[in-house]
Amino acid sequence: MKTLTWIVRIVAAVILLQTLYFKFSGADESVFIFTKLGIEPYGRIGSGIAELIAAILILVPRTTLLGALLGLGVLSVAIFSHLFVLGIEVQNDGGTLFILAIITFLCCSFLVFQNKNKISDLLKYKF
């Protein structure tokens, strides 16, 4: 089970991290997406930062739950954006971005389920 958990962590982190180049470099597709959503450039940069933090947290065993929860939040917005604003296919990508969002959402869901016994500890944490 540990091997499966690490594979899921790595898949989620790699997908989250590979999109950062496009978001932070201002690639045409990223600019198009966030312009269509009406949140360019702040939404693009902000979501990139959130994804970077989520990926790092997911890879650290002690903070996996927190990273997976953050990932679920970011990916929920991405999936809803695809379903209600952008469409499944964006700029003739064949739905690749949508499929990657679904895969990462499922990985994060698995990690939350895997760490569900730690959720009460998160709620008790005092800042």
TrEMBL record:
<keyword id="KW-0812">Transmembrane</keyword>
<keyword id="KW-0472">Membrane</keyword>
<feature type="transmembrane region" description="Helical">
    <location>
        <begin position="42"/>
        <end position="60"/>
    </location>
</feature>
<keyword id="KW-1133">Transmembrane helix</keyword>
<protein>
    <submittedName>
        <fullName>DoxX family protein</fullName>
    </submittedName>
</protein>
<feature type="transmembrane region" description="Helical">
    <location>
        <begin position="67"/>
        <end position="88"/>
    </location>
</feature>
<feature type="transmembrane region" description="Helical">
    <location>
        <begin position="94"/>
        <end position="113"/>
    </location>
</feature>
